[in-house]
Amino acid sequence: MAPKDETTTSTVEPSNLLSQIASDFDEDENTSGAVTEKLAEIVNKRFSAPLGEEKLKEKLGQYLRPDNCAKLAVPKVNPEIWMKLNRPASRQDLHMASIQRAIVKAGTALTQLAEILLTTPSGTTGPDLGKLLTMNADAVALLGHATHQLSMHRRQAIKPFLNKEYATLCSPQGPVTEFLFGDELQSQLNNIKASNKIGNTMASESPRPPAKGKEPWKNKPKEYLKNKVSNFQAGRLSSYAEQWKLLTSDKFILDMVTGAHIELSSTPFQVKCQQKKLFSSKERLVIDSEIKSLLAKGVIVPSVTEPGEYISPIFIIPKKDGSYRMILNLKQFNEHVAYHHFKMDTLASAISMMKPLCFMASVDFKDAYYSVPIASTDQKYLKFIWDGQLYKFVCFPNGLACCPRMFTKLLKPVYANLRQQGYESSGYIDDSYLQGDDFADCVANVKVTVHMFDSLGLITHPEKSVLIPTQRLTYLGFILDSKEMKIYLTPEKTDRLIKLCVDILKKPKSTVQEIASLVGMMTASFPAVMYGPLHYRSIDMDKNEALKKSKGNFNSSMTLSSSSIEDLHWWSVSLPSAFNVVQHS
Question: DSSP letters of 216-234?
Fold first, then answer.
């Protein structure tokens, strides 16, 4: 090994010089001596405003990457990932990459500047000072441009979390100083408030009817929505196809809007119509009334026999309001419908969003399924006969297996758009949950959401929706309380489940079907019954054992074990005070 050279010299090796510079970097908490006033003016100007488009293009093309500096480049997104990105995500990445390009070009200019300094032999005439200053100024300009653009991007990222009235604070015209929104923030806030106050005063003093197509629901939302409900026409989404095209380019969704096709796993084939159910005189009156109503709405139309048709039986079920809904029994036809696993929001989705003291609202659609038209080629599969007349559904019927998945997919871009605007929401088929940190935030959420649904042809039911924000909301059969951060069963569900438990306790024997229904109601109540999962296993095991002994006969009788009877007593006593706590890990 060569001995270490102890000779002192004034010449510093380039590599040592670079090492010293690297070790001298600090966190810039302190300032150094002032630079030349003109230089300071250039730096401050370039870091407070972006370059013009032509000037930026010129500077970006001026500096080429050295051959051996492969890292002086903007990384591209891997093609496999890029293909998976939606439009908003790809646009955002391109925007960030353009800022990154300016930083890379600034690094290229500084690298070339360092190369000139390092390759100048000692004792020779110095490098061209004009060239060095130009390169340095270009690097500063590009870095200043990138810094300003990143500041604007940070403003836009913060925008969804501001009250909507303060959105103008994020304008690119606002100055960036030591603070992201400038030094005069309080003054800007006061000006915005004053401007809004004047606008509200003028609106109240000079009322005038809204122009045609100009959001009439904002003035009298209840009356507007009631009018929409009373004038509902089936398949109405097809009239709003252009608005859907502005929201999404998904071909599956756009096909659904103009006329949904039923994806089949096999060709439906019917030798003869299914057995007709015998209805009582009361049931016949109900069906006559329902058919009359469905014809008026355009949900069904009279039809004639055609090749490949599929005729299903009908039945009726009672609704909460005391009326009835006629259902097309598509059990056999659904065997030919392609099944796809899909994910959908549930009550758990809403609970996971809840925050202490948040305000909540809900939106329920009027005849949600009936809003979606069925392609004319597929309407032949949705037929039934009543009093010798053949009818067919021309829109989504209740009972078609693919409808929940398709309707969930239909609304995905709607909720995604609302979330991009900063509004918290989730949806379970035709029930939407809306949330805001305070009353005003939730009101804004309701207004924007209802307006968006309305603009796409989906009608909000004013009676079934909760449009006034509350901290205790009934949603999907449960009561969500953000003050206590607890979940409760509705009184109706509580009474129904208690009655079922008591009725079974009174009888020495029950049918397997009755116990199966009881177990189903118990498990469905778990979100609001904290210790419910600990008190149903025995009942479920008794049911399974009885079903096994009867070879699958749900009408067979069974007796509950002593442990199951004990659990039934627990449910009947505990249900009136049952609740569950909202916990976020």
Answer: GGGTSHHHHHHHHHHT--T
